[in-house]
Amino acid sequence: MVVATGCAALALAKARTQPEELLDRHRAGDFGEVDSVHRQANLHAIEKGGRVRSVYRLRSGELLHVITEVGVTTSIVCVGEE
Fold first, then answer.
1. How far, in Å, CA of 74 to CA of 3, rounded?
2. Cβ neighbours, 10 Å, residue 77
3. What b-and-e string marks burial along 42-66, b requiring 16 or more CB atoms within 10 Å of the CB?
4. Per-residue pLDDT of the chain in tens (82 residues, 90 and over written 9)
């Protein structure tokens, strides 16, 4: 399941993007615009447990974060300032 914050929901609607599109990429290991340090941290979290964070740029130019705690079935979509 994916939950979008209010600001993220507005950004998604503006960009005509469904949150599931981002979640599918996140689940597939496409972490978007994260640097190599965060990419390694994500891989470590997947293997050992922890938080996986992806960053995606919408067609509108806005950046959204997708955050999932390994072992939890709900992911959160938010803007960076939230």
1. 7
2. 25
3. beebeeeeeebbbbbebeeebebbb
4. 899 999 999 999 999 999 999 999 999 999 999 999 999 999 999 999 999 999 999 999 999 999 999 889 899 999 986 6
Residue 1's SS3 state is: coil
What does the alpha-carbon distance between residue 65 and residue 31 come to, in Å, rounded to a whole number?
10
Nearest to 31 by CA among 7, 51, 11, 2: 51
The dihedral built from the CA positions of residue 16, 18, 24 and 29, taken in this order, carries a sign that is positive
Amino acid (1-letter code) at residue 66 = V
